[in-house]
Amino acid sequence: MTSRSDFTFFHEHRVRWAEVDPQAIVFNANYFVFVDHAVTEYFRANDLMWDQTLEAGFDFFTVNANCNFRSPARLDELIQIGFRCKRFGTSSVDYAFGIFRGDELLADGTMTYVCADAKTRRPIPLPDHYTSRILAFERHPIETKQAA
């Protein structure tokens, strides 16, 4: 089970009116919006914003996203989105996330991104400066599994 201690990085968010359904609970698709905001802040914390990666000639594309919904977040609650690197492949990277209200796990899941040449949009190996920054930031081991 995912816990807060699994994450080095957290982004805090207060649930807004526009993010809930008529039951005043977060509409399920908005969990990915919360994670997307956390992704941006995670990359900002690692000095790897998208304009910098584009200048370096590479970009990332989401190829898989999943979420396990465990307990609903509600209007005006303060939640924390934990985000971390889980695995480096040759050209792909898996990230894990957990959404918490205090210590209670509300949702968790993974996102897979593929690194690609910024012009051709074809997969390329993960750049060393990208992986080295993530490795220096994370406090948990990152699995490295090379593609077959």
Rg from alpha-carbon coordinates: 16 Å
Reported for the largest beta sheet, the result is: 6 strands, mixed
Low-confidence stretches: none
Beta-sheet strand percentage?
35-45%
State the end-to-end CA separation: 29 Å
Brief summary:
22% of the residues lie in helices and 37% in strands.
Describe this structure in words.
The chain is of the alpha+beta class and 148 residues long. Helices cover 22% and strands 37% of the residues. Strands 1, 2, 3, 4, 5 and 6 form a six-stranded mixed beta sheet that branches. The model has no long low-confidence stretch (mean pLDDT 95).
List the helices and strands and how they pair.
Elements: E1 9-14, H1 30-45, H2 50-55, E2 58-69, E3 78-88, E4 92-101, E5 104-117, H3 128-137, E6 143-144
Parallel strand pairs: 3-6
Antiparallel strand pairs: 1-3, 2-5, 3-4, 4-5
Any key phrases for this structure?
single chain, 3 helices, alpha+beta, 148 residues, 6-stranded mixed beta sheet
